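[SOLVED] Need 3D model of a three-part complex

Original post:
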Amino acid sequence: MNPRLARLLGSIGLDLLRSLAIAAGIVVFTFFVIRMIPGDVVDLRGIEGSLTYSQQTAMREELGLNKGWLEQFWLWLGMILSGDLGTSARYSTPIADLLATVIPSTLALGTAALSIGLVLGIGLPTLACLYPRSIFVALVEFITIWSITIPTFSIGILCVIVFAVWLGWIPAIGNFTVPALILGLDIAGTLAKMLHEDMTDIQTADFIRTARAKGLNRAQIVLRHILPNALTTVVALIGLILASVLTGALTMEVVFGLPGLGTLALQAIKGRDYPVVQAIIIWLGLAVVVANFITDMVQKLVDPRLRNL
Amino acid sequence: MPAVSTSRAGGLSLPRWSRLTYIAVFIVAIALFVSVAGPLLVTHDPYMFGASMNEPPNAEHILGTDDQGQDVYSRLVTGTGLSLLYGASAALVALFLGGLVALLAMALGKVAEGILFGLVDLIRAMPGILFALAFIVAFEPGVESVILALGISFAPNFALITRATYLQQMARPYTSAAKVLGASRIRTAFVHILPNVAGALITQFAIVLPRCIVSESVLSFLGLGVSPETPTWGRMIASATPYTEDAPHAVIAPIIALSLVTFSLAIIGNELRTRFDPSRRRIAL
Amino acid sequence: MRRTLLSLAAAFAISIFTPAFAQEPEYGGTLKLQWGTLDTADFHRHTGTISLPHVFAETLTSISKDGSPKGLLAESWTISDDGLTYTFNIRQGVKFHNGRVMTAEDVKKNFERIQREVKGGWLTSAMEQVESFSAPDEKTFVVKLKAPFAPFLNLIAEGWILAPESPGWDSNITQPIGTGPFTFDSWTPQLAIKGKKFADYWMEGKPYVDAIEFDVREIADTSLALRAGDYHAADIPLSKIESLKADGIAIDFSGDTSWNFLSFNNRKPRPPFDNVRVREAIAYAIDKAAIMKIAAGEYGVTGNQMVTEGNFFFDPEMAAHDKHAKPDFERAKAILAEEGVNPGDTTVYMISELNNRTAAPIAQILRQLGFKVDNKPFDDLGFQRALSEYDWDVFPGGSGPRNDIFLRYVRMMSDGPNPGLWGGIQDPEFDKLVKAAISTVDQNESRALYLKAWQRVLDNYYTVVLGHAPGAYGIRPEVHDLTIGFNTSAHRVDGGVAFTWIDQ
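Solution:
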């Protein structure tokens, strides 16, 4: 086998092992940590109804909550591995159904926000690079500062008041465009500054001087040489961006009343619906691990220097 | 702004700061002053509820009152100290857990390093806010839980920087020299490497601090932050948000305070980073 | 002839020019509501708010706005003199959503299912009193009790009558087939419940709207959505009433109230709060009016009982003699001094619910008395747990409307459900009085006994009542005849969604 290929595969293989270990870690960790939270779903039923102690014990037995933790863990692990996501303790509906209802919403918001964020976050610095003394540079600064300083939920509430109630342009609850915009701006802010700096750095690099000596004009240089290099930064940051989209989506969902994963997770944590919380944290965690793995792999394919073996 | 000379024989060399940085430092200085002098600057008891709710700014209440009749100005003043204190505590916890523990782990060898950074990856893999939420709900809610939860969430930032710096420094001649002279790895780590890591850690602290402060406000907004009477900026925003229409001043005042201070801290952090390490590629965090 | 024509013309003219005083209901439209949540499609197991199931499945009785039970699926009933036998005349010609006619046998099967299957819920205490059910013929349903149980009629307002053909009857019902004005078409937990008009509904000509949609998300502030027109009606926080009225939204209140109180730890009291006089001192220090103003704006009233004016079980005499109607701070300090208690030495541990607006002001009052206060806020589940551990001193709490006064008293009994909110009272004298109150069929005797029990609460300062506030609902102008009942129920024999119509 070609030694270079061998090294590449080996590096990816190691990464895979590491990712699997982390995945296993997430699974175990979540299960036991969630169990540590005081109060369970029977307590919740107890608040709303009025359950006597014996009724609560009976309910716990029904839900299997009185078995030892280890026993519960094996049962649950078996279930997960066979593909069954389990049933919500609070609603007695299959978790898969619950997730199926909420994931599209979060995906929609996330994709929209990501698109806006990428377009602005990559576009603005590029424009700033192309036209170095124009307004675009100021815009980059503005966006960066904006994303650092203004908490998204405050802007969210203000937007709801202004656009939904005063202007009536959007429904007060269930609207996607405004939160997508807000999140998108946030992401753009994270990206823009870094990209702008990278691009400016790259501009002084040798190979750019060569390109200029070759007679390429500014636009060509930026678009053909600087931008692609800068994109590797973006790929490296995907993990961070995804994490911040998730976090941002949660708050936005609460403010704008969107029926997404974030709202479900929050309610499930407050309602001590263990199965749902587990399912969400684990699947989200796994999604992030997979995303990181893929981006690492892509980076390795692109840049041999990163295949540290 | 004229460049201050950097070569005065025998004197301190002041760095050349941009106007923006001066403003930022000024704002932070004011914030610190208010934090310390808080009790002297308040006009009313920040916790005392009153009869007049949601009053706009007037002679008696400089910034008006909130939905429980409390004086917004006094709460803002008290809250400055609290927000900074809690944010700094969380960032410090992150620094110690992430930075110093990481340094120790690196010095102890590959196994320790593997375990610790496995944990680090684990924390980074989980959606930050869910993790903090679950953590706070698991342990009793309150200031301590918030600080601990945020500290753990941000520890990876410090850990990664520590590791990178450690590896970098270990490749330098002076560490090999130390080893030759018989210094143990731990001693090398803490006596020789630590001073070099310090700069990066402090920079990261300045970057993480505003994020801690904002995170606390998000947690309070979701209902799992500090107790409702504590006037941290985040809590004030959260409580005043449902009444934005009736009492916009009660929401805007803490938002402005929060924004100004986090912005200033971010500028300072940026400046520090440029100062300490302009050439190295930032760790993607 | 002329005169007749003239009067006809006059009548015609008057009817044209009279403004639409008695408007004719219009048919059509989808009613969008935001109030209440649903935990399960198996209504018998439902332990949460009872507003929603009524719209799809009905009960023998429903509670009217004044708190009295009226026949819904039961046309009438008789109670034997000894209070042990209830004979219900079941309404005839009522169809289930699957077309079949409901009989007394169906009613019996439902009650048996509740008794057999449901291990927790409001009805369980009622079911424990039952000796037997029988359905001697299609029209008659008979319940024999072991002992007189006064709350029975009110409690069965939550005994949903479902068709035994409902899928999941033997385990967990997934599709409840009821007799209500709307069919239970779809339910996405925490999202929405949708239903269509039931064409064969037994109330002639009703419902008027074609479909109903409940938004069951837990949204903190529905007023924005209401103003923007996303909902036709929603339950709203009291603080938003003014801004809603300004936008032309009508406000209606529930018949029953929620009440706020400050409870002491009665299960394991710690010094100095094991001293009744210290509790008395704190009661003197509290400014009920100011706190209720913060909690409920101008819609709050102060009080010293679990119910307020207008309720049968309220005693105006007792209210008039409330020692603590107005605060007396000096007296409070004096009593503390008399008892040799130095507040500066004590830290009061307070548990509070995050959304409770009385917690911070009460904490502040305690601080003014000189105590140190450690206020730990919890989310809605956490505080229940924390309360049941009984290592706290005070708990400012609230409790909502109930079908029957018994449901308020039962939680203060020694083996009552969820007693933590009132500090886990264990008072055998109190228990005896409440048991006596429910065992008599004479309403007035019942009332007297309940009040005696309450007097014990007052004398021992188990809990200090702050005041009451009603539940408020906002209703958009294009919605007509949506009346709010005693509690949160959305459908009753004399009001609710079946009577509602929307401007087309």
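Edit: Residues 443-460 of chain C form the longest helix (18 residues).
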